[in-house]
Amino acid sequence: MKRQPIDERVFELYDEYCHGRIDRREFLRGAAALTVASGSALAMAESLLPRYAAAQTISFTDARIQSRYVEYPSPGGTSGTMRGYLVQPAGDGPFPSVLVIHENRGLNPYIEDVARRAAVEGFLALAPDGLSPIGGYPGNDDDGRAMQKTLEPARLRQDMLNSARFLKSHTRSTGGLGATGFCWGGGTSNFLAVTLAGDLGAAVPFYGAAPPASEVPRIQAPLLLHFAEKDDRINAMWPEYEAALQAHGKPYEAHFYPDTRHGFHNDSTPRYDAAAAKLAWERTVAFFRRHLA
User: Fold this and answer.
1) Which of 34, 75, 166, 240 is least surrounded by CB atoms within 10 angstroms?
2) Per residue in 274-289, pLDDT tens?
3) What is the per-residue pLDDT across 78-107, written as a single tens digit (0 to 9) for each?
4) Contact between residue 120 and residue 62 where contact means Cβ atoms under 8 Å apart
């Protein structure tokens, strides 16, 4: 999606909105109150809302993949059962596997598309829907964000942990397991690196919250961390995280993408940066191939 010239203040409002600190009405009302040099701040705000149909890169019917929704047990999670979108390369496998973890709004079409992209690259991909125990992704991000806020965080993370274990033990999986995620899913990728320890082969968080420094010694998987340059909240966590990784000799790579914002990989809104997203994804695929083979 082509990036539009958008006032910095509108981007700041959108960051508040997409992280659930204000709702859509407050976001649009705040933008409408702004005076900008050219155009309409309200139109700028509306252009930031996701347009999933225009952003799809891999079709549901692509001959290179096979996809289906699956249900599996999730003891200790929100309801004891989970549902996810499972995508495999054409053929019988087995394949190295990658868990694809959504943002703070459930399994939306962007994350399903990322799972298909992973399958096209040769991985068995599972994108769990953390909202499935309470009805599933509702078809729009506003309601999905509100639903996810009602969940107990520890149980939701347990659902992601059980999803990772389900994928690792799947009959089509080689047992080599990677995890990647975006925003909330990026933080959860870090959580899985801590919690799964040697059962995780690699983790690739995109602009995700860091785990507590005290938990870093438990990490065994190599990390590839992607950061947006203009992402003060997440980036403020990095110095302490990096210091802990270095202090305990943990293998990691970190990349900051110039002139990008939180969410730069999501091609459904103008925060998307095509060059940065392409490079980050190429690095991600290569990293998983190297460590999950």
Assistant:
1) 75
2) 999 999 999 999 999 9
3) 999 999 999 999 999 999 999 999 999 999
4) yes
Closest CA to 165 of 157, 184, 251, 287: 157
* pLDDT, tens only, 225-245: 999 999 999 999 999 999 999
> What is d(CA 66, CA 87) in angstroms, rounded to the nearest whole number?
6
Q: Contact 192/203 with Cβ under 8 angstroms?
A: yes
Domains of the chain in start order, with CATH, are: 8-47 (no CATH), 57-292 (3.40.50.1820)
Block residue for tokens 């933008």: 31
Q: What is the percentage of the chain residues whose pLDDT exceeds 70?
A: 83
